[in-house]
């Protein structure tokens, strides 16, 4: 089992290496891995003691892994001992949580669509949609309608703007974008670590934006195509909030609006349309807020600091990207969109596109699935909670999507 090279995956792999190491790391090395909020609960010495106890049982191997960019659960085993290792990271990529526990009872897949509906509704803050591309109505809808915070799922529209620019001849996949302070964001991602002036191809930036949700790659691409092009991509998919939710913020802007500047956050929350939103974005400070400002207990989406869309909006942008994938300009799209499938689905389905998103109190996933003899099918699941502690776990939320695909693939009807 290979742990993916995501912000949370990198930290999870470090923990595995630590509990398998011949020698313990120093307290300073441990402190560099953990957020201040986590170290307030357990000191570096406490953590080293836990790692030492686990080391005596090793070596440990990873038997399962489910996660997005910010949180994950890895099944680990040593001999007859099995544990679930839950890891969460901050926007800066430092661990905000690390928990070892006996494996939870395996989640029972929904027996039928009625059972699935009950499970989703009991989760309290989850909505689920399954829709065939081109169909007049979804095959399945559970949960509240309207717009939901979607986190990094918004990057699908950035990708659409990029391929539109390629088609128009304004950009090429081989062109480069430059990494500098104007586009450097906080993690997730890798490109924020590159020095000013580094050039990255448009193709590589797009790959990282989708596969590892690289925020700096996203902002570099948004600068390359321009704000108007991203708004045009939203418009061409009939985005439901075009009158109120444009221009959409970059990821760097979102960190300022969510956690970095209280007065800007208040203005953003009160902004009623494009002109007021643009004025707030024009007043953003340079750079990024300090990592310590990003509070993992403060859900910023409740004051409008996120990207919002209906499930139908997400279906529409996936449909547009699949359409573009059949063109010369969009030739790389299927490889870009399928590099990270998020989770595994029933064998009847192939994952041809995935984009997830998460923020404090927010979790979202979206997939395009294909099966012989069936239209391409989009699955969208979202969860949001004002109290981040009440947000259902990722395996639960994404498990609903897996169940829906399995049941509908077997011929169940919504």
Automatic annotation (TrEMBL):
Domain ORF 12 gene product N-terminal span(s) in chain numbering: 3-94
Query: Which Gene Ontology molecular function entries are recorded, alphabetically?
Result: beta-lactamase activity
Q: Which domain of life is it from?
A: Bacteria
Q: Name one GO biological process term.
A: response to antibiotic
- Every copy of the Beta-lactamase class A catalytic domain together lies at 140-244
Show the InterPro entries listed in the entry: Beta-lactam/transpept-like, Beta-lactam_cat, Beta-lactam_class-A, ORF_12_N
Q: Where are the transmembrane segments?
A: none
Pfam families from the UniProt entry: Beta-lactamase2 (PF13354), ORF_12_N (PF18042)
Matches recorded under PANTHER family:
BETA-LACTAMASE, CONSERVED LIPOPROTEIN LPQF-RELATED
Q: What is this protein called?
A: Uncharacterized protein
Give the organism, scientific name: Microbacterium aurantiacum
Species classification = Bacteria, Bacillati, Actinomycetota, Actinomycetes, Micrococcales
């Amino acid at each position: 089992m290979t742990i993916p090279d995501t912000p949370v995956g990198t930290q999870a792999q470090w923990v595995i290496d630590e509990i398998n190491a011949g020698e313990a790391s120093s307290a300073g090395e441990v402190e560099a891995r953990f957020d201040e909020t986590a170290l307030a609960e357990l000191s570096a010495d406490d953590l080293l003691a836990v790692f030492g106890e686990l080391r005596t049982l090793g070596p440990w191997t990873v038997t399962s892994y489910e996660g997005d960019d910010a949180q994950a659960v890895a099944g680990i085993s040593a001999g007859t001992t099995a544990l679930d290792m839950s890891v969460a990271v901050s926007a800066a990529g430092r661990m905000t949580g690390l928990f070892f526990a006996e494996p939870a009872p395996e989640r029972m897949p929904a027996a039928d669509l009625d059972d699935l509906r009950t499970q989703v509704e009991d989760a309290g803050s989850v909505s689920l949609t399954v829709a065939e591309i081109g169909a007049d109505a979804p095959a399945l809808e559970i949960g509240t309608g309207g717009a939901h915070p979607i986190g990094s799922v918004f990057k699908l529209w950035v990708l659409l703007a990029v391929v539109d620019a390629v088609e128009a001849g304004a950009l090429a996949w081989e062109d480069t974008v430059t990494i500098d302070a104007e586009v450097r964001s906080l993690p997730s991602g890798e490109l924020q670590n590159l020095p000013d002036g580094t050039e990255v191809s448009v193709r590589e930036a797009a790959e990282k934006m989708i596969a590892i949700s690289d925020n700096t790659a996203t902002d570099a691409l948004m600068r390359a195509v321009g704000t108007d092009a991203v708004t045009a991509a939203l418009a061409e998919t009939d985005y439901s909030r075009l009158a109120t939710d444009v221009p959409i913020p970059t990821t760097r802007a979102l960190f300022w609006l969510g956690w970095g500047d209280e007065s800007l956050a208040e203005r953003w929350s009160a902004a009623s349309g494009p002109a007021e939103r643009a004025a707030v974005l024009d007043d953003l400070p340079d750079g990024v807020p300090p990592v310590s400002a990003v509070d993992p207990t403060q859900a910023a989406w409740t004051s409008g600091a996120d990207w919002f869309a209906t499930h139908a909006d997400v279906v529409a942008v996936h449909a547009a990207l699949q359409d573009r994938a059949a063109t010369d300009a969009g030739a790389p799209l299927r490889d870009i969109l399928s590099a990270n499938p998020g989770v595994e689905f029933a064998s009847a389905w192939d994952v041809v596109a995935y984009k997830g998103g998460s923020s404090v109190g927010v979790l979202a996933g979206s997939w395009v699935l294909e099966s012989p003899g069936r239209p391409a099918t989009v699955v969208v699941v979202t969860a949001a909670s004002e109290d981040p502690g009440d947000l259902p776990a990722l395996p639960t939320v994404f498990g609903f999507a897996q169940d829906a695909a399995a049941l509908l693939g077997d011929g169940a009807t919504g």
